[in-house]
Design goal:
heterodimer; A: Rossmann fold; CBS-domain; 2 domains; five-stranded parallel beta sheet; four-stranded mixed beta sheet; 15% strand; B: alpha/beta; TIM Barrel; eight-stranded parallel beta sheet; 43% helix; globular
Chain lengths: 325, 318
């Protein structure tokens, strides 16, 4: 019984979105053009659950390159209308087309000079008659008994909002660089955008020993800094080499007594380096190419500025190369 | 023919009141129409279920229509009138007689013809048939899809539902303005998808319990509105978002929920003999003279007890 009910609700909601496909028309294109030409922002307004849908659409617009904000219709008449300017575009959502709070602010928005787009399920409503562009988001049926809670209608409005945001994104040629800019905290943004200088270790956290130090001293540093390697510096602090856990293992295999040897005897010269202005994605590609987990950032004089580790690019949970280590 | 838009909202499926000799109970009809009409957008006359249309003669149907039109002359209420006969010729004859009668009428704008095509016609060449029918009766047509009634009245029939592709074709005809739909929700989706290009094409819920559970946005055909028109008005307006803000008092949702629950109980209690139950209650209320019907008498006292209880609980139709 419960499963059947749930399936019916999902079916009704799915149909509500499918229903929009055949009804989408030139007014949608006009809405996209209007927003593209606007000098200001897209201001969304709606009451109750439509208001919540507005907030989500506003967030989607912001993250896809269209500046947007939410205006609560009830707060609007108490001063928040000041945020609207003639350069903005208003996007109102009202399924019934009768929402009193929005109807009250429409004339003032008209006076301000901001064009108004309406998402509604009632094309004959007073709000539909008062708006510049009306987009039909009507549904055939609500999924809630007695239609007490808007269900399919809010799903349809939300989907139409996504259609608008994605259409704007496409028309603006919003590319992955733009996406990175707006998603610094997101997975995709992390992986694609962050510069090496933003994730590299600097200062005391860099494991370093001087040439002439013993292997024992190098092991102490490797252990203390906990990134599986230490850098070796030569004259005037210039990068001379690297000793990794692998280097230590290989050295121990060939001659067991290595503790008192100078580090230069077992280090790998010419560690792989990367410019601090290159991206994390490029650092990752370099690590994958050479099957290493650490890159050194040096200045023009080969002095060490920092170190970037694979963990800092992918997170410890995703530490795996395509080819395996 | 000029374009007509079918109404959105509550369409009361009126029972047909009879005198004990089988004639139409005109005073009873008047009282019923006067009781129901202030709360509905439309009245469905001589319907095949509650209106017992299949058992009415052409004269009886026309009396129902004439009298109701007279009673409603000052009310902006639409009339849905069922014209289906046992075969194509009889339906055409009803349409032709009706058209002749309507010629003298000043303003029959609010009259819609309802037809259940599969009772006498197959899906094949249905659109051609409706072109012929609409050349005879110059009124907007509302289709009626009711698989149960077709199975009941016409058992050997091949198909009980209008095919979706045929409905799509029919919905594109300007004369056909809507559909009264009974059947599975899944078929309902297919029909909606077929007709959704025209946002003015109405698909009414022919099953009032379905409407209470998942309200469609065109409206409902309700037998229960004979008994509780105010409650049905309230529920339909709320479901279709037609309710004025001033009615949204603090416990609005709770009242809607309770009223809807009572209406659902009444609808369930009326099954499987809604005509007998509704007529018995209306007779008790002094609205109609007798509970006479075209079908045989059923013992519906238990159902009536439940209906009376529920009606007692409801604030609006006390």
């Amino acid at each position: 019984m419960i499963i059947k009910q749930a399936k019916e609700v999902l079916n009704i909601e799915a149909q509500s979105i499918l229903g929009l496909i055949d009804r989408i028309g030139p007014e949608f294109e006009q809405a996209v053009e209007l927003i593209l030409k606007a000098k200001g922002r897209v201001i969304l307004t709606g009451m109750g659950k439509s208001g919540l849908v507005c907030r989500k659409i506003s967030a989607t617009l912001n993250s896809t390159g269209t500046s947007s904000l939410f205006l609560h219709p009830a707060e609007a008449i108490h001063g928040d209308l000041g945020m609207a300017t003639s350069g903005d575009v208003i996007l109102a959502i009202s399924n019934s087309g009768h929402t009193a709070e929005i109807t009250r602010i429409l004339p003032i928005l008209r006076q301000i000079g901001a064009p108004i787009i309406l998402f509604t399920g009632n094309l004959d409503s007073p709000m539909a008659r008062a708006c510049d562009i009306v987009i039909d988001v009507g549904v055939e049926r609500e999924a809630c008994p007695l239609g007490l809670a808007p269900t399919a209608s809010t799903t349809a409005a939300l989907a139409m909002g996504d259609a608008l945001a994605v259409s704007l994104l496409k028309v603006r040629h919003f590319d992955k660089d733009d996406f990175r800019r707006f998603h610094p905290g997101g997975n995709l943004g992390d992986r694609l955008s962050i510069k090496v200088r933003e994730v590299m270790f600097t200062g005391d956290r860099i494991p370093v020993v001087r040439m002439g130090s013993t292997v024992k001293e190098a092991i102490k540093i490797i252990d203390a800094k906990d990134i599986g390697a230490t850098l070796i510096t030569g004259n005037e602090g210039r990068l001379a080499g690297i000793i990794s856990d692998g280097d230590l293992r290989r050295a121990l295999m060939s001659r067991p007594e290595i503790m008192n040897l100078p580090v230069e005897e077992i280090m790998s010269p010419s560690p792989k380096t990367i410019d601090e202005n290159q991206t994390a994605g490029e650092a990752l590609a370099l690590m994958e190419l050479h099957l290493i987990t650490l890159l050194v950032i040096v200045d023009v004089d080969s002095r060490i500025r920092g170190v970037v580790h694979l963990h800092d690019l992918l997170g410890r949970e995703e530490f795996r190369f395509n080819g395996g280590l | 023919m000029e374009a007509f838009e079918a109404p959105k909202g509550l369409i009361a499926e009126l029972i047909t009141p009879f005198e004990s000799d089988g004639a139409i109970d005109i005073p009873g009809l008047k009282r019923l129409v006067e009781r129901v009409s202030p709360h509905v957008q439309g009245i469905f006359l001589a319907s095949p279920r509650a209106g017992e249309g299949a058992g009415l003669s052409l004269d009886q149907r026309l009396i129902l229509l004439k009298e109701t039109m007279f009673f409603l002359k000052d009310h902006p209420v639409f009339i849905f009138f069922w014209i289906t006969g046992v075969h194509e010729e009889q339906t055409m004859e009803t349409a032709s007689t009706l058209q002749k009668w309507l010629k003298d009428k000043a303003n029959p704008r609010n009259l819609f013809i309802v037809d259940t095509p599969l009772l006498y016609h197959s899906n094949r060449s249905l659109s051609l048939y409706y072109k012929q029918l609409s050349s005879i009766i110059r009124r907007p047509i509302i289709l009626h899809n009711d698989p149960e009634i077709i199975a009941y009245l016409k058992k050997p029939f091949k198909r009980n539902n209008i095919r979706t592709a045929i409905l799509k074709e029919l919905s594109e005809m300007p004369e056909i303005t809507g559909l009264i739909f009974c059947g599975s929700l899944e078929r309902g989706y297919h029909y909606q998808r077929a007709c959704r290009k025209d946002s003015n094409f109405r698909i009414y819920d022919g099953d009032e319990i379905r409407f209470l559970d998942y309200p469609s946005m065109s409206g409902a055909i309700s037998v229960g509105a004979n008994l509780a028109p105010k409650a049905w008005e309230k529920i339909t307006q709320s479901s279709l978002l037609q309710m004025d803000q001033k009615y949204k008092y603090p416990d609005h949702l709770q009242q809607i929920w309770k009223t809807g629950d009572c209406l659902r109980t009444i609808s369930n209690a009326c099954q499987p003999f809604p005509v007998s139950v509704v007529k018995k209650i209306l007779k008790e209320q002094g609205i109609i003279k007798t509970s006479a019907a075209t079908s045989k008498d059923h013992d519906v006292e238990k159902a009536c007890v439940r209906v009376r209880e529920c009606m007692g609980k409801m604030m609006v139709d006390k």
